[in-house]
Write a structure and sequence with these properties.
rod-shaped; 204 residues; 4 helices; 10% strand
Length: 204
C-alpha cells in the first residue's frame, strides 16, 4: 500500500516552500536542507486546505511562493516585489481561522490523497529505475574497459613470449655460428701451418 502523504511547509531564502511527501525526512531531502529544519522550528506539517490541495496535485514536487505572501504555491514563483523594504516587519499570516482550516482539511477526499501518494511512489520508482539504469550503464562501461585492458595485456604477453622465443633462436644460431667459426679458424690454422712449412722447404 502506498504510504500516505503529508504536506510540509518551510521558508528558505526568498520563498515559502511546500511539498507533499511521505515523511519529514523525504521533505528535507526534496528541499535540499543540510539540517533538520523541523527541529529548528522553521519547517512544519501544514493542514491549510489550499496548500494541501496544491501539493497533493503534484506530489513530490517542491512548490514555492514569495516569502511572506499568501499567494498560491506553484512550481515557478516570482521573487517578492518588496525585497529589502520589509526587513524587521513580521510576516503576514493568513486570516483564515485555524479551526476553519482544520475542518476544511478533513474534507479532502481520501481517494485523491491515495492517488497523490501513488503518484509520489510512481515517481520514486521512476527515479530508482533511472538510477539502476545509470548504474548498469556504468557497470557495462567498466566491464568494457576491463575487457579492453585484459585484451591489451594478453597481446603484450603474447608479443613478449614471441620476442623471447625469437631471441632464444637467434642466440642458438649465434652460438652455432661461433662454433663453426671457431672450427673453421682451427682448420685454417692447421692448413696454413702445413702450407707454410711446404713453402719453407721448397725455398731451401
Amino acid at each position: 500500500m502506498p504510504k500516505k502523504l503529508k504536506t510540509y511547509q518551510t521558508s528558505l531564502g526568498f520563498y515559502d516552500q511546500a511539498i507533499a511527501a511521505p515523511s519529514m525526512k523525504a521533505a528535507l531531502q526534496a528541499w535540499g536542507a543540510s539540517s533538520n529544519l523541523f527541529h529548528q522550528g522553521v519547517a512544519k506539517e501544514t493542514d491549510d486546505p489550499d496548500i494541501v490541495a496544491a501539493t497533493m496535485a503534484k506530489p513530490g514536487v517542491v512548490l514555492r511562493r514569495p516569502v511572506g505572501s499568501d499567494g498560491p504555491f506553484t512550481e515557478s514563483a516570482e521573487l517578492p516585489a518588496d525585497l529589502g523594504e520589509g526587513e524587521g516587519k513580521p510576516r503576514r499570516r493568513s486570516k483564515r481561522p485555524a479551526k476553519t482550516a482544520k475542518k476544511t482539511s478533513r474534507k479532502i477526499d481520501d481517494q485523491a490523497a491515495r492517488k497523490a501518494a501513488a503518484a509520489f511512489e510512481k515517481e520514486e520508482r521512476r527515479r530508482e529505475a533511472e538510477r539502476r539504469k545509470e548504474e548498469a550503464a556504468r557497470a557495462r562501461e567498466r566491464a568494457r574497459r576491463q575487457q579492453a585492458v585484459a585484451a591489451a595485456e594478453a597481446a603484450l604477453d603474447e608479443a613478449r613470449r614471441e620476442h623471447a622465443a625469437r631471441a632464444e633462436k637467434i642466440e642458438s644460431e649465434r652460438a652455432a655460428l661461433d662454433e663453426r667459426a671457431e672450427a673453421e679458424q682451427g682448420r685454417w690454422d692447421k692448413q696454413r701451418r702445413k702450407l707454410e712449412e711446404a713453402l719453407r722447404r721448397a725455398r731451401e
